[in-house]
Amino acid sequence: MKKPSKILIIIQRSNGDVFLSLSLINKLKVVYKNAQIDLLINNDTLEVAKLLPNINSIYTFSYLKKQTNQFKQEKNLFFTLFKKYDLSINLTASDRSVFYALLFGKKSISAIEADNKKSWWKKILLSSYYYFDNSKHILLNNLEPLNLLEIEHDNIQSSLVYDELNTSNIIKKLKNNNINSFLIFHPSAQYDYKVYPKHLRDKLLQLLNTLEIPIIVTGSNSNADLIIRDEIPILPNIYNFIGETSLEDYFVLSHLSLSYIGMDTLNMHIAASQNKRIFAIFGPTKLSMWSPWSNDLKTGTLQNNPLQTYGNNTIFQASMACVACGKAGCDDNQGKSECLFSISPEKIFNEIECWFRNV
Fold first, then answer.
1. What residue ranges define each of the domains in the chain, with the CATH number in brackets?
2. How many CA atoms lie within 13 A of 255 on its CB side?
3. Model's pTM, two decimal places?
4. How do residues 170-226 score in pLDDT, each as one tens digit?
5. Most exposed: 49, 53, 97, 195, by fewest CB within 10 Å?
């Protein structure tokens, strides 16, 4: 393929998918130095996308607009992006995102389903394709286009460069609270079915408080996070920063922290990209795809285990036969995840305390 001068990357999934495309984006920029790289994403991942380096323009798709005025949204995207790019790279296998790749790129690379009944037409029309593999880590899935382009890479999850971040707000906030060394506790997630139950969370915070080191509780200003903010117990070593920091601030906080404690969500992947010590609480999420990546070992984990450690990462799961089911809650409809109720806060704390006392 002739070196592309304009590249579109299509990511129609969640915040974690967008952040975990950073290694792909950075490598493309190294190889195609003068290329313009644009993104087409879901609008609820825009905050993450805005922080990614080497991006020229960001276009968004709204599922809310799809429900209210689908034709207008599709029409605007079509007339704005049709055959505008030398190369389109689609990281999701949905029919819509594949159509976007075909319509917007003169050459197109896309993930497709292994099921030939769903993907036969995609194989015919796409310039190149790869099978989206649910048993493989999302980082490795997202790097597959590099293999098709015969671009060498090292399976390292990139992070934002600390020196390029705006650190003033966080440095001032830490100084005002007389905080030097600290641990992060992140109790929320993008989806409620991933959130550790309140009574267990409160117990864990009470135990963490005994470490006699500041525990900074983080979260956004979303309605779900603000509800959690008001539930956090008032304890001498617990600092409740929920709703008080931006996503960029969080990158800085994570960089400065000693470790990440919390849920399986974007913030965990940020900490992993910074090679932080991680204690992650997992519910129904499949580890093969979404476990914290270890840059040292260049792997996630494929194993389900009530307690496991690899590299800098310790993962807690329930000891239940159904774990990990991969569903969105037990009802597969954003409902409660019973497995999270079975993870003991004492077990989590014992691992954290053992590590902390030996640091």
1. 6-148 (3.40.50.2000), 163-358 (3.40.50.2000)
2. 17
3. 0.95
4. 999 999 999 999 999 999 998 999 999 999 999 999 999 999 999 999 999 999 999
5. 53
